[in-house]
Specification:
This protein is mostly beta strands and 83 residues long. Helix content is 0%, strand content 66%. The two termini are 22 Å apart.
Length: 83
């Protein structure tokens, strides 16, 4: 699936991923390839990207929203720090 991570300032990440783990309102949740369509708010916490060029990348986000539709995941984060 294709993943984009955006902040108000810039595009932080764009590439292929096999899974994305996100900090949701009720705890961590994971989006996998062919996931059902979803829109969710995100809390402050760790976002983990698996697959793609690097085997695993970790970001710390400050709130935001995620949308998954047709194997494209878009994360709109209020702020982000790459580990």
């Amino acid at each position: 699936m294709t993943l984009e991570i955006l902040t108000p300032d810039k595009k932080v990440y764009e590439g292929e991923a096999s899974s994305v783990t996100l900090p949701g309102a009720l705890g961590l949740f994971e989006i996998l390839n062919n996931h059902a369509p979803i829109i969710s708010t995100l809390h402050d916490g760790k976002l983990t990207v698996r697959g793609g060029a690097a085997k695993e990348e970790v970001f710390f986000i400050k709130g935001g929203v995620v949308e998954a539709l047709n194997n494209k995941v878009t994360v709109l984060a209020e702020g982000i720090q790459h580990k």
